[in-house]
Design goal:
Elements (H helix, E strand, L loop, with lengths): L1 E6 L5 H13 L3 E6 L9 H8 L15 H8 L2 E7 L1 H8 L6 H8 L4 E5 L3 H5 L1 H12 L3 E2 L3 E4 L5 E5 L3 H23 L16 E7 L3 E4 L2 E3 L6 H12 L3 E7 L10 E5 L2 H12 L4 E4 L6 E3 L9 H4 L7 E3 L3 H7 L6 E8 L4 H15 L3 E6 L10 E8 L4 E8 H13 L2
Parallel strand pairs: 1-2, 1-3, 3-4, 4-5, 8-11, 8-13, 11-12, 13-16, 16-17
Antiparallel strand pairs: 6-7, 9-10, 14-15, 17-18, 18-19
Helix pairs in contact: 1-2, 1-8, 3-5, 4-7, 9-14
The protein binds cytidine-5'-triphosphate.
Cytidine-5'-triphosphate binds next to helix 12 and strand 16.
C-alpha cells in the first residue's frame, strides 16, 4: 500500500520517525511530506533514510508532474502525525498553502490525523470546532493522549504513541479494502451470515465496575457480564476484531478477543475511550457505577472508630456513554444499554426514550433487571430503540441469541 505520512512542526515530529519505520517494515511504500516547521525538529536525511524514498517538502518542486495532486491521488492512506493546531485548522477550512494541505485536498484516500499540542491549544474552542468538522467529514482522529507535554506541564495534547497510530491506520486501511472488495463483488449491502463484521473493529464493555471504599470493600453491582461476553463472542464469530473491556466478569473471558481488564468506572472510561478511537462500533454493556466514594481509605475502615453509623460521601462518575456518543466519528455506531426495574411495559419504553435522549447514542438496548431477572441469568429479554426512539427490535431468549439479534440491528444500520 502507498502511505503518505505528513509531518508538521511539533516536538513529537521525532516520534513520526517510528511511525514511518513501522509502515516501511510492514512492507508499505511510504512517502513523507514534511512542512517547513517539521524540518526545524527533524532533518530531511532522517525522513529519507527511514522512509527509503525522497522527502517531499516544496509545493513548487516537480510542477511538471503536478505533484501537488499526484501524491494525494496515488495514496491509499494519508497519516498526519504529529498534526499541529495550525495544520488541523487549515485542513478544516480547506486551505491549501503547502504541499501537505494540497495533498489532503486532492486525495480520495482515508485520512488519519494524530494531533499534538499544548492542552490549552487542544481545548481551545477553535481547535475543538475544527476537529469536530474533520470528524464529520470522515477523517479519523487518533488521540491526543494525556500525559507529560514538552515542558513541565501535563494534560491532554500529547501525540498518541506510534504503535497506536500504526494500529489505527492499518485498521482504517483494512476497513476500506474490505468495503471495496464487497463493492466489487456486489455484496456491499448483502449480509453474509457469520462474516458480516469482518474488517470491523468493535469495542464492548461488560461486567460491573467496583468503586473501592478501602482495601477490602467496594461499592458494586450485580452485573455478571454474561450479555456483554455473549456479544463479544457473537461479534468475533461474525469476523469482527473485538476489544472486550472487562469489569469483574462472572464468566470466563472468551478466546479470540482482546481483553482489557478494568475495575473502576474511571478505569473503564480510560480503556473504552482509548479503544474507541479506531472502532467502528462501541457497545456499552457494562453496568457502570454512577457514583464513587469521595475518598478511599488506605486502611480498613474500623467499626470501633466509626461507631454505629457511617456516612459515605459519593461523587459522580463521568457518563462514559454520553461522552462517547458526543465525541464519536461520523461513521461510528455507539450502542448503550438501559438496565431498568420498571415493570409497566409502556413506562419502560418511555424511560428508555428519556435515557436515549440524555445519552445521545445510536441505539439503546433496554432490559428489565430485578432480583431474579436480567443480571446473572442465562436468558434475557430486550427492546432496542434507534436514535429516534423508535422500537426497531424485540428479542427474548438465550443471551447468545439476543446478542446475535442486537448485532443484526447494528449491521443493518
Ligand atoms: N453508563 C455509562 N457511564 C455511567 C453510567 C452508565 O457509560 N456513569 C452507560 C451504561 O454502560 C449503559 C448506559 O449508560 O450503557 C445506561 O446505564 P444505566 O445504569 O441503565 O443508566 P444510568 O445512566 O446509570 O441512569 P439511571 O441509573 O438513573 O438509570
Amino acid at each position: 500500500m502507498t502511505i503518505v505520512v505528513g509531518v508538521t512542526g511539533g516536538i513529537a515530529a521525532y516520534k513520526a520517525v517510528s511511525v514511518i519505520r513501522s509502515f516501511v517494515l510492514a512492507g508499505h511504500d511510504v512517502h513523507v511530506i514534511a512542512t517547513d516547521a517539521a524540518l526545524r525538529f527533524v532533518g530531511a536525511p532522517t525522513f529519507e533514510a527511514i522512509s527509503r524514498n525522497p522527502l517531499n517538502t516544496d509545493l513548487y518542486e516537480g510542477v511538471s508532474e503536478v505533484r501537488h495532486v499526484g501524491i494525494g491521488k496515488r495514496a491509499d492512506l494519508v497519516v498526519i502525525a504529529p498534526a499541529t493546531a495550525n495544520t488541523i485548522a487549515k485542513i478544516a477550512n480547506g486551505i491549501a498553502d503547502d504541499l501537505l494541505t494540497n495533498t489532503v485536498l486532492a486525495t480520495a484516500a482515508p485520512v488519519l490525523i494524530a494531533p499534538a499540542m499544548h492542552t490549552e491549544m487542544w481545548q481551545n474552542a477553535a481547535t475543538q470546532a475544527n476537529v469536530r468538522t474533520l470528524r464529520e467529514r470522515g477523517i479519523t482522529i487518533v488521540g491526543p493522549g494525556t500525559g507529560q507535554l514538552t515542558g513541565a506541564d501535563s494534560g491532554p495534547g500529547r501525540m498518541e504513541e506510534p504503535d497506536a497510530i500504526v494500529h489505527a491506520a492499518t485498521t482504517l486501511a483494512t476497513r476500506r479494502t474490505v468495503r471495496r472488495e464487497r463493492e466489487a463483488s456486489g455484496t456491499a449491502s448483502a449480509r453474509t451470515p457469520r462474516h458480516d463484521l469482518s474488517g470491523h473493529r468493535i469495542v464492548i464493555s461488560a461486567g460491573g465496575t467496583r468503586e473501592p471504599l478501602d482495601p477490602v470493600r467496594f461499592l458494586g453491582n450485580r452485573s455478571s457480564g454474561k450479555q456483554g461476553v455473549a456479544l463479544a463472542v457473537a461479534a468475533r464469530d461474525r469476523g469482527a476484531d473485538v476489544v472486550l473491556v472487562a469489569a469483574h466478569l462472572d464468566v470466563p473471558a472468551p478466546d479470540g478477543v482482546e481483553i482489557r481488564s478494568v475495575s473502576t468506572a474511571l478505569e473503564l472510561q480510560r480503556a473504552v475511550t482509548a479503544a474507541a478511537t479506531d472502532a467502528d462500533i462501541v457497545v456499552m454493556a457494562a453496568a457502570v457505577a454512577d457514583f464513587r466514594p469521595a475518598t478511599t481509605n488506605d486502611s480498613k475502615i474500623k467499626k470501633e472508630k466509626v461507631g454505629d453509623s457511617l456516612r459515605l460521601e459519593l461523587v459522580a462518575n463521568p457518563d462514559i456513554l454520553a461522552e462517547l456518543a458526543s465525541g464519536k466519528q461520523s461513521d461510528q455506531i455507539v450502542v448503550g444499554f438501559a438496565a431498568e426495574t420498571e415493570r409497566d411495559p409502556h413506562e419502560l419504553i418511555e424511560l428508555g426514550r428519556r435515557k436515549l435522549k440524555r445519552k445521545g447514542c445510536d441505539f439503546l438496548v433496554i432490559n428489565n433487571v430485578g432480583w431474579r431477572t436480567g443480571f446473572s441469568t442465562d436468558d434475557n429479554e430486550v427492546v432496542v430503540l434507534d436514535g429516534h426512539g423508535d422500537i426497531v427490535m424485540e428479542a427474548a431468549g438465550a443471551k447468545a441469541s439476543v446478542a446475535d439479534r442486537i448485532l443484526d440491528v447494528i449491521t443493518s444500520a
